[in-house]
Design a protein that fits this description.
single chain, 207 residues, mainly alpha, Arc Repressor Mutant, subunit A, Tetracycline Repressor, domain 2, 2 domains, 11 helices, disordered C terminus
Length: 207
């Protein structure tokens, strides 16, 4: 069956995203030209403008797509009515697992915020704040329930996200610890940051 023009266009746009993500992560947004992206995709530079009006729009698309995907994935992972301690553990494992295979997207999402124009920055920042709000809400519920001891839930939420984001800077698939072990270690650390003790302590308290 012959492909329709729309499907070809969508495939090309996806290849543009894939190659620009690699190039931005490797060289930095400012050092990469649309011509270089086109060469990596295997099309003429003019063809890129059928999908993205300029390089700034492409960067914004990558960052917004990353955040949209993160929030959608968490929505499918979250369990309604879950106890705060369990919800926080679930979020820690989710965050590490989701980002482990997206190192380029994570790197760009943090390092290239400065390259966004004000309007695009605000769009990305709004999504980042939504995700921070997820963590903050879990912490607030835990404080209210007497499970967490946190002086400032917003600052604590940002600290937890920063801690988890750091995993991508050093995690290697063939490293000393597997991903599940790392998730367990980070879960204990985050629980301590929230003033809840270790997982074993929570289990003992529940018994």
């Amino acid at each position: 069956m012959a492909r329709i023009a729309g499907s070809i266009g969508a495939e090309t746009a996806d290849r543009v995203r894939e190659q620009s993500l690699k190039l931005f992560a490797a060289k930095g947004y400012a050092a990469v030209s649309m011509r270089e992206i086109a060469a990596a995709v295997g099309v003429q530079a003019a063809a890129l403008y059928n999908h993205f009006p300029n390089k700034q729009a492409l960067l914004a698309d990558l960052m917004l797509s990353h955040m949209d995907g993160l929030l959608a994935a968490w929505d499918s992972e979250a369990v309604a009515g879950e106890a705060p301690a369990e919800a926080l553990q679930r979020l820690v494992r989710f965050h590490i697992r989701y980002h482990a295979g997206r190192s380029d997207a994570v790197f760009i999402s943090y390092m290239e915020l400065r390259s966004l124009e004000p309007e695009n920055f605000m769009k990305v920042e709004k999504l980042r704040q939504t995700y921070e709000g997820v963590v903050q809400s879990i912490l607030e519920q835990g404080v209210e329930a007497g499970v967490f001891r946190v002086e400032d839930t917003r600052i604590c939420a940002m600290a937890i996200i920063a801690m988890l984001a750091g995993v991508n800077t050093w995690y290697r698939q063939k490293g000393r610890l597997n991903l599940s072990q790392i998730e367990g270690i980070y879960t204990d650390m985050v629980l301590r940051v929230a003033g809840a003790g270790r997982r074993e302590d929570l289990c003992s308290a529940a018994e």
